[in-house]
Design brief:
Helices cover 27% and strands 23% of the residues. It is an alpha/beta fold. α9 links the parallel β17 and β18. α3 crosses α11 and α6 crosses α11. The longest helix has 20 residues. 43% of the residues are buried. The chain binds manganese (II) ion (2 copies). The site of one manganese (II) ion has 3 residues, from loops.
Length: 468
């Protein structure tokens, strides 16, 4: 028997802010769509574990969707689709709008690099008849999480003659895998006294790669020789070729559903593929937008966005300048009128570790895509704090399209902090706010997201690009 709502209940509904579980808000049909969308996303996660592989995947899909390589000497018309591949490590996708570029663009920016173990430039050595690679970790990692899990090796080796060998070992079920060893608890009495931050040290992240010696030879370092011989036969590389290589070790496990209800996805590299994939899919889904739509999938975010494939470089600005020139518009005008969703993840509230969050302002899995007005640390240092006006715009856009969304802060005040590419976009005088998916176990080798949130990120980017 349904009871009539009291005046107080009615008023609360009208006046209070109370974000809900997405499944209470959306239809079963939309839930099914979200689950279907995530099947493709899981396959992307398995195929694109590094920034280079993400570019290859997105580029192939872009071409199938009618995108052609951008040529700054050409003229493009409304509805034309172009891509700009920046050194195979970041990529810009654009669909020319009906409105002139002086009206600005609708820009979404996500990153496709993730925390990992990079091989050092002279990585190969043998100790006690075991062969290893030395590593230097990339991005923010809890080092102890990277031991005793299967790893795969990805990347490129540029040989002395300039040709490239592409490496991808450990992803096929039949491939060998690699691992960083750890101490057995029986002998870890001293190690266990270290702090968690120091439990495994950077120079202890050595990857096990072989243990059988080269046969019929009197030389020393025969295990290393055997490995080098295998690599020479397979890739034609010699040891000095590592000096001009980028080899990255990432977790070898595949993405999968999490939970009896299959409501979540566990995987390596959700940060930030969980925003990059929806941002790319959203631009693939649109035809003839009002405003020129741009998705940039960038590199180097995890180490501060520096480097010419990161968003602290001018490559995006130059691309926009080339577009602007084509229409005889000043690029300052285009950037100054551009609206951007900086697409990055936020830390979801974890009930096991409630102390680092402030419940009223944390983001939660399943409450939809999260808007993060500011990140940073120590009193909002190192962030772009979006204006109330821009928050208001984005808020009414999402509400108007029934996109389930929430607001979220990255941890409680002074608990730590972080940053995104938003501040580099703001530096170009673009209006920008962070929008992305809440993640559990962020930056771990195996992160968790909710399927409904992933789909809401896609809906948010699509709505943004379709703005009139
Ligand atoms: Mn990120
Ligand atoms: Mn990150």
């Amino acid at each position: 028997m349904s009871k009539e709502k009291s005046r107080a209940e009615e008023l609360k509904e009208k006046l209070f802010y109370n974000p809900k579980h997405a499944s209470e808000v959306i239809s079963q049909e939309e839930t099914d769509k979200a689950d279907a969308f995530c099947e493709e996303y899981k396959s992307f996660l398995n195929k694109a574990k590094t920034e280079r592989e993400a570019v290859v995947y997105v580029l192939e899909k872009a071409k199938k969707n009618g995108f052609v390589e951008f040529d700054r000497a050409k003229k493009y018309n409304a509805g034309d689709k172009v891509y700009y591949n920046n050194r195979g490590k970041s990529i810009i996708l654009a669909v020319i709008g009906k409105k002139g570029l002086e009206n600005g663009t609708r820009l979404s920016a996500a990153h496709i690099d993730s925390p990992r173990l990079d091989m050092k430039q002279n990585p190969l050595y043998e100790d006690t008849e075991i062969a290893y690679f030395k590593t230097h970790y990339y991005g923010g990692v809890k080092k102890y999480q990277w031991t005793a899990i299967p790893l795969s090796l990805h990347g490129v080796v540029v040989k002395r003659d300039g040709t490239k060998a592409y490496v991808n070992v450990g992803e096929d079920d039949n491939d060998p895998k690699f691992v960083v060893t750890d101490l057995l608890p029986h002998l870890a009495a001293e190690q266990m006294k270290r702090t968690l931050a120091d439990g495994i040290r950077g120079e202890e992240l050595n990857i096990l790669i072989g243990s059988r010696p080269f046969k019929d030879d009197e030389a020393s370092e025969k295990v290393k020789l055997n490995i080098m011989n295998i690599l020479f036969e397979k890739y034609g590389i010699i040891e000095s070729d590592f000096l001009s290589a980028e080899l990255e070790a990432v977790p070898a496990f595949k993405s999968c559903d999490i939970g009896f209800d299959r409501s979540m996805i566990g995987s390596y590299g959700h940060d930030d593929r969980v925003c990059a994939y929806p941002a790319a899919e959203a631009i693939f889904s649109i035809e003839n937008p009002e405003y020129t739509a741009i998705t940039v999938l960038t590199d180097k975010e995890e180490i501060g966005s520096d480097g010419n494939t990161g968003l602290n470089s001018s490559y995006l600005k130059y691309f926009v300048a080339d577009l602007a020139n084509m229409q005889g518009v000043n690029y300052h005008t285009v950037l100054s009128n551009t609206h951007c969703l900086s697409a990055d993840v936020n830390a979801a509230f974890d009930p096991t570790f409630p102390d680092v969050s402030e419940r009223r302002n944390a983001s939660y899995i399943n409450k939809g895509v999260v808007i993060t007005k500011y990140t940073g640390s120590r009193g909002k240092a190192g962030t772009s704090d979006a204006s109330a006006e821009y928050m208001g715009k984005i808020r009414s856009m999402l509400d108007g399209a029934d996109v389930v969304w929430q607001s979220g802060e990255l941890g409680k005040v002074d608990a730590g902090g972080g940053g995104t590419v938003a501040m580099y976009l703001a530096a170009l005088n673009i209006d920008v706010v962070d929008l992305g998916v809440p993640v559990l176990s962020m930056h771990a080798p195996f992160e968790v997201v909710s399927k409904l949130d992933v789909y809401m990120a896609y809906r948010a980017f699509k709505t943004f690009f379709e703005e009139k």
